[in-house]
Amino acid sequence: MDHPRRLQVLQAIVEDYVHLREPVGSKALIERHNLGVSSATVRNDMAALEEAGLIKAPHASAGRVPTDQGYRVFVDRVAQVQPLSSAEKRAIQTLLDSAEDIDEMMGRSARLLSHLTQQVALVQYPRKKTVTVRHIELVPLSNAMILMVLITNTGQILQRNVATLHTEEKLSFWRRVLNQQCEGEPLHLLTELQPTPPDAPGLSPLWAALQAMGSQGDPTRLLVSGTAYLAEGAVDFSRSIAPVLDALEEQVVLLKLLTGIDRNEQGFAVSIGQENPEDSLSEAAVIARGYGPDEAAALGVVGPTRMDYSMTISKVNAVARYLSKILSES
């Protein structure tokens, strides 16, 4: 969509629908927005937007509402981050600066982000330093037992016995495969890696032991605040908010939402509707941003696709920025 006027019409439709929660017609657009064209031209533009899959009619003879694709074009091409007011900036800084320890700061951050955005807030605890795999060694203990030793970049040593028949040739092969794939990888992400090649002879028990090490190496905590806001916006979910509430109970799902979606050039990750990997979130939107050292941790919000993206991105960014500043000074 490279048509400036139609992007302007799309922007007007998104903004009106977000704030008024009702389908938007051409007459309303003319009355509420200075588009500088006739109502006939606006109707033609709306028809083109509908044909492109960016807006749709929820009912016969109704106005139009944005689709997931329409929201995506709006976020990528039109939305501009809204600056926070001086009062909002002071409130964020005062609240976070006065926290006495990391637990209080994380709790305040989650509650603050939820209050500012009127959405469900997710805040991952910061990692002071990302722990990665430096080297994996396999030490034969007997003909049927191996000691797997994993050394991290921080000097941490993890060990695990693995029952498997082996030869020196097999040990050499396994050692090479494991180090080629795992050296430099974050320890906590070993549980998500898949062996390559997946059918390498004898690798399965070693890989299972390696993933078990990953699960114990870098525990992650996640705070959730503001689920009551979903109930207030239940009308925005055509089926039920129950699947979204269920997803919010799954820490693994939430961590993948925060850290697994691609960030844009500005550092934000925005996943809308059907873009979400979980079917339970097909009517939800996720906005996330990294923070802290190397932006290794993340925070964000979950809400309906009918969301004020410009405002929400601004406030997610502000909280992330202040948290990063505080952590860098601690």
From TrEMBL:
Keyword Chaperone annotated: no
Keywords, comma-separated and alphabetical: Repressor, Stress response, Transcription, Transcription regulation
Coiled coil: none
Keyword Transcription regulation on entry: yes
InterPro entries noted in UniProt: DeoR_HTH (IPR001034), GAF-like_dom_sf (IPR029016), HrcA (IPR002571), HrcA_C (IPR021153), WH-like_DNA-bd_sf (IPR036388), WH_DNA-bd_sf (IPR036390), WHTH_transcript_rep_HrcA_IDD (IPR023120)
Location of the HTH deoR-type domain: 34-59
Domain (Heat-inducible transcription repressor HrcA C-terminal): residue spans on this chain: 103-313
Any Pfam family: HTH_DeoR
Function text: Negative regulator of class I heat shock genes (grpE-dnaK-dnaJ and groELS operons). Prevents heat-shock induction of these operons.
Family membership: Belongs to the HrcA family.
Record-given protein name: Heat-inducible transcription repressor HrcA
